[in-house]
Amino acid sequence: MLFCIFSILNLSFVVYLDYYNEDDNEVESNQYEEDRDPNGKKRVTNNSKKTIYFKPEKSFRDPISGKEYHYNQAYPIKPGESWNYPVDGIKTGEGEVIKFPAMDHWDVDIEIRPGGGLEFSSWIYEKIVDSGIRAGELDIAPDESWDDLFNSDPNNLDDEK
After folding, report:
1. Could you tell me which residues are beta bridge partners of residue 158?
2. Which of 98, 116, 126, 135 is nearest to 51 (CA)?
3. pLDDT for residue 103
4. CA-CA distance, 8 to 152, in Å (whole number)?
5. To which H or E segment does residue 127 belong?
6. What is the pLDDT of residue 84?
7. H or E element: which one contains 117?
8. Is 140 left (phi over 0), alpha (psi -120 to 50) or beta?
9. Phi, psi values for residue 157, rounded to 5°
10. Which 3 state secondary structure label does DSSP give 129?
11. Strand partners, 7
12. pTM strictly above 0.85
């Protein structure tokens, strides 16, 4: 269990987290509320006509649905749906795999546009992704935790978890 106190612009936030315990290979309870915007702001919105897949930034249990998400698995976002937590990467409907810089310290939304392109709410974040430095389009999986995302088929919802 970890308690963190953040103080930014005279606003303080207390965050309670229990992270994924890789040794036990199970997801522990996790509020993950510091990454979920209470105003309903989305982290990834799929406005394309195809299903995309994402890889979560870390493993956790959604406090609202109770569903477990694992950092080494891919999950679909159907057209018109959104994902409210940070992602490590996505696979677009065109089959491109894109790695994002850690979203913990960024307040950024990513929209998959109708034509399949990406739009970011932060131009600085977009420039970091475009730079290819520890982010951007990937041709091969950087490690085995990316295998499920690389092997997911945006056109086949039988892959759905």
Report:
1. none
2. 116
3. 65
4. 39
5. helix 123-131
6. 87
7. none
8. beta
9. -80, 0
10. helix
11. 12
12. no
What span, in angstroms and rounded, lies between the C-alpha atoms of 121 and 108? 6
Distance CA 56, CA 60 (A): 9
Show the tokens assigned to 38: 């209470």
- Sorted by sequence, the CB contacts under 8 Å of residue 75 that are 6+ apart come out as 53, 54, 55, 56, 69, 83, 160, 161
Asked if 92 and 49 touch (Cβ cutoff 8 Å), the reply is no
Q: What tokens appear for 145 in the block?
A: 């935790």
- Which residue has 């994002």 as its token pair? 100
Q: Which amino acid is at 83?
A: W
- The dihedral over CA atoms of 118, 101, 60, 33, expressed in degrees to the nearest 10, equals -80
- Total number of residues shown for the chain: 161
Question: How is residue 26 annotated by DSSP?
Answer: B
Token pair 């600085």 is at which residue? Answer: 124
64 token code pair: 């609202």
Residue 93 is which amino acid?
A: G
Best-predicted range by mean pLDDT among 18-22, 56-60, 69-73? Answer: 69-73
- What per-residue string of b and e applies to 72-97 under the rule 16 or more CB within 10 Å gives b? bbbbbbeeeebbbbbbbbbbbbeeeb
